[in-house]
Structures are given as structure tokens and as C-alpha cells.
Amino acid sequence: MDLDTAQPSARLTASEPVASAASEPAAPVPLKLAVILGSTREGRFGPVVADWFLSRTDRHAGFSADLVDLADIDLPTALSFRPGPAVQTQLAKVSPRLADADAFVVITPEYNHSFPAALKSLIDWHYGEWQAKPVGFVSYGGISGGLRAVEQLRQIFAEMHAVTVRDTVSFHNAGAHFDDEGRHKDPSAAESAATAMLDQLAWWGLALRDAKSARPYGK
Description:
Order of helices and strands: EHEHEHEHEEH
Number of strands: 6
Distance between the termini: 73 Å
Strand content: 15-25%
Largest sheet: 6 strands, parallel
Shape: globular
Number of helices: 5
């Protein structure tokens, strides 16, 4: 071989660029979480529970929360395929927010072994807004902690093609757990339950959001 005409070495020189290590995958966009406060009763305890729960969601990187307080929305119990202007005004307050949400948490008391009528009206006035989205529950009440209301809501949301997560947050004899400033007196167990529920909700929310981006949900 003529060494004067040999091809240059394939070794890199100091002036040649070196391939960089694979970059870390981008963090997923936080899920839009609609937190629905289902009680509208005068003197309700719900805002105390809602404020506590929203402080937990603020610590969870997976969500951007929006509180939907049904006390601010007046939907009739009589449904209509052609709602009048007054009902359309009320729907305009809430329907776009439900449609925009990736996931839901329903905060509900228990009234006579069930959940509030205002919550049922909200569910019944909507359909596609719930489909292929996960739902978690925070309940409160007396000795049952609102769990009987939650079990009924699971059946209803299944009919709406929603997915309810297993773990819940429940407050038995709720008023005794919070001080006059709305602070939980012994929050460790409740915070652990909230974290478990939010983690499950985040898993389902991301999985369903990705699935729907690849293929529209068909009922």
C-alpha cells in the first residue's frame, strides 16, 4: 500500500463533534383535573373538605385543578333536549370545564344513604364530557364516611363510560377531624389515602389521554 495515499483514520479528532447522550424524555403535560363539590346545602361542610383536598392536589405534579362548585350552578332536575336560555346560561358555566377535563374528583356527602340531587343533575345533563375519563371520590359523612354514596356513584359513572379508581378518601364523622380553621387535626392517614387515589387517577388519566389521542373513543 502506498502510505502517502492511504485513507485517513476513522478515529475522531478533538475537533469533531461527539454524539450527546440521549436526552431525558419530556415530562407529561399535567392532567386537567375537575374537582366537583357536590353539596349545595345551606351550612354545608363541603368547602372545608374541598379546601383540604385542593391543598393535596397542589402538591401533586400530575394535575392542574379546577374547582367546580355546584352551589354556583343552578341546573334543573327536569332534563330537556332543547334547554331554554336560562338553562343554557347555567350549562355554559360548567359544560366546557367538564369537556376540557382529563379527570375528575367528586367530593360528596351522604344524604339518606345516597348523594345530593344537584350532583345527579350535573351528571345527567352531560354525557360525552364523562366518557373515557377517570373519576376519583372524596366522601364525608357520619359513621359511614359517605361510602354508600360513592358506591352508588360508581354504578352511574360506569353507565357514562367513565372509569372509577379503586381507592377513595373518606371522612367518618367528618366534623371531628378538622379544627375551626379547617385544618385536619391528624392528617397523616388522610394524606396517604389522597396520594394513593391521586396516583391511580394520574395513571388512568395519562393512559386514557394517550389512548384517545391515538384513536377516538367509541362507545
